[in-house]
Each structure stands twice: as structure tokens, then as C-alpha cells.
Amino acid sequence: VDTTPSEQKAVDSAKRRQAEAERAGQTGLARRLAALSARWLAVIDALEAAAKLEAEAARLEDERIHVQEQTDRLISLVEQTEARRARALARLQALGLEPTGAAGAPANAKPAEGAR
Amino acid sequence: MNQHGSLVLAAFWLFGCGAHVPPQTLVDADNVARSPAVAQSNELAPQASAVARGLLQEAHALEKDGQTAEAGVVAEEAIAAFQEAFALTRAARAQVRIERSQQALAEEKVRLAEFEAAQARATQEADAFELRARVALDKEAIRDVETLTPERARARRQAATQLASEARLLCVSAALLGRKTEALTRAQSDVQALESDLGTGSVQNDLYPRAAALRTSCLSELTLTRRPLAQKAPDAAGSDRLLAELAATSAVFAFRDDRGVVVNLRTPTNKEGRLEEASRSVVELLARTSKQHSAFPLLVVGHSATGADATAAETAARAVAQALTEYGATAPAVEAVGPKQPVVDPRVAGAGAHNSRVEVIFVTVAR
After folding, report:
1. Which class for B82: exposed (0-12), middle (13-18), buried (19 or more C-beta within 10 A)?
2. Do B115 and A63 touch (CB under 8 A)?
3. Given an 8 Å threshold on Cβ–Cβ distance, is A50 in contact with B116?
4. What residues does A56 pair with on adjacent strands?
5. Cβ contacts (< 8 Å) between B68 and chain A: which residues?
6. B32 with B55: CB under 8 angstroms?
7. HSE on the CB side for B147, CA within 13 Å?
8. What is the pLDDT of residues B44-54, one digit of tens each?
């Protein structure tokens, strides 16, 4: 969360001036200064809320990038596994256990029975 | 005009105009109101902007009325109100980013799950093809075995190690479903003897055929256990419902193999062997699911990437099993197989991250 030193100084200044106005009997001015300090406190709250939301947005963006990187790595792994599958199929074909020319089921097809 | 007239005019200008010199805060507030940021806050924080503009108008009215001090304070409040509107504008923009990121993240997770499923299918198919090739090669005449190249001998040994490990888990699964036969006891004893031979570096030529035969024996025992149970309660036996329930949670990726329905936990524990917070909710979900499918005993298997981290994998498996029990599941059986069952060729870069895992298996009554 961002710190808000200048806003806090403004609150302190308004409160100090309010006390001075009250001492001088300037009730109207004191009331205005009370409203001013309350307004600066609202600014501090709004700034803190904005900073929290921005941090959450940044966290979510980082997480998305992380998941995207995982996906990218997995895509590479799927390609390697499909290549291994193709090599194993070619071996079976060489052994005469699968018809030659058959590409085999794609990876998104139903898994073969007895796969383990 | 004489000198007096000039002085009067000067005084009039000085005091007359001086009385109408606005306080600095009012000038500042006017400048803020003209800044480009106001246009955005009018759009994204319209109520706060309206309040700020209202205060600025009030400050001008007070100044026109001669209440300079009050005008200055209200102008300051107008500046603060504009700042509040700007902060709310930032918050609104961040909220939009959050919503977009949440949607993009959800889409990316779906994409990841799709590739995980594709990877699992490709691995299963590749394993199945390789197993068939290994079995076919094993039937080759003994004269071929005599001329084994070192590379081929190593490959056979690896295959025997993996098959023996798979045989052990299949026999354990049969025992978990209540199988108590002499054949199962013998198969388990033979698996133990074979794993001992493999562990001591035996160079016997029959290691691979023994492993293949034992895997078949253990699978046969499991199938013979399942058949009467499935006939007795066909509705509860099927793993389809369990698989669908797990898939619907989208918290885990589950798949089926000979042992039952398998959930793969990548790295459930930290370096100290304690369950990660992120894994707790998954384990709790699995325990809850297990209670709803009490006919399916649980088996937790620790896999490591290398022999060096086999103990850590076993510790992780035991931590998961303990947490499952704490969350109300019936105490699961725990097995550790070290690096004997890789899902990715260990020579491939990054394979360790996939091979190191803890599997939670619902040993189903029917496949």
C-alpha cells in the first residue's frame, strides 16, 4: 500500500488550523476546516484502496504470466511426448505389430486400453 | 488628471482589485479542475468529480461574497475532493485490470488443463506402444540376448525395474480391495525377490521376462478381485462418476489407469516435508471425495526424479497420507517407488519437475 505522507500532513495542518479558528471564535471557519480534514482522510482511504487494487491486479497479471509459462513448457513437453509416441509406433510397425502407414490415434483421442 | 486623482485611481486599483484577488488555493483548485485527469475521473468516478466541482463553485461563491478565508478553505477541500476522485479513478482502472486478468487467468488455466490432458493421453499411448515393443522384443530368441549391446542391456534393465514397480503397485491394489489368495502372496513375494535382484545389480538374463510375467500376475489378481465386487454392486463399482466428480471441481487433474483413478499432486510439500498451504485444499477435497466413495481404498505413491531424492518423495507421500487421514479419509496405504516410474524420459530437460510427484489413487472396483 502506498504511503500518503503529504495527505497526512494536510490532515494535520487542517486540524491545527481548526483548533486555532476555534480558539479565535471563528466557528464557521472551524467547521469548514473540520470538513477539510475529513476530506483529506477520505483521500487517504481512497489512495490506500486504489493501491491495494493495483497490487491485486499486478498479482493476477503475474499469476497469468506464470500459468502461461507453464503452458508453454507443457506444449513443448507434449511435442516431445508425441514424438516419443510416434517413435514407439514406428518401432511397432517395424516389428510388424501395427499396420504401416497408420498414424495412430492423435493425443486428444481416447487413451488406449491397458496403457500402463 | 492631477496627482490626487492618480493616487485615488491607484488606491482604487490596489484595494478594489486587491479585494478581488482570489486566494491561492482557489487559483490552484481552478488549475486542478482544468487538468486532463479530470476528464478521466468525470468518466470513471463521476460522483466524486461532481462533489469536487460543487465545492469549487461554492468556493467561488464565497470569494465573490467577500468571505475570502472560507473560500480558501473550501477551495482546499475542492482540491482534496479532486484528489479523491483521481484515487477512485485509479481504483476503477485497477478493478478493470483485475476483471480482465481474472478472465485471462481462467482461460489460461483451461488451456493448461487441456494440454495436461493431452500430455497424459500422449504419455499413456507412448507408454502402451513402448510396452508392447518391449514385450515383443522379449520374445526374441535367446541367441539375441547373448549378443546384447550395453545400451540394450541397460534399456532392458530399466524396463524390468519399471515393470516390477508397476507389478508391486498392482498387487498392493489387489490386497487393498481385500484379495487374500496364495497366488497374490506368491506374486508379492516374487516381486520383492525381483526388486532385490534388480537392486543388487544382478546381470541375469531373465530379469525382464520375470518382471513382465509378474506384472501380468498382479494385474490378473486385481482383475479377479474386482470382478465379483463389481457384480455385487455394479452402480458403486464404476469409476466414471468419481472421475466426473473430480473433473467437475477443476481443482485437480484426474485420469484412469489399471490401478484406478489417479490424481497427480506435483509438489505437495515444501523442503521441510510439510504440506504446502496450496495443497491442503486439494487434499481436503480428495478426503471429502474419498468419504463419498468409501468402497474405493486410497493408495498414496511417492515418485522421485532421481534416486537421491527418493526419501524426500516418500516423506511427501506420507505427509499427504497423514493429511488425508486428518481430513477424515480412511488411512491410505503408502508406497514409495523412487525414480522407477518416470512419466517423462529423465534425459529430457525439465523432466524432473514432472517425474517428481505424489499420486493419490482411488483403487476402484471397476476400471
Report:
1. buried
2. no
3. no
4. none
5. none
6. no
7. 4
8. 999 999 999 99
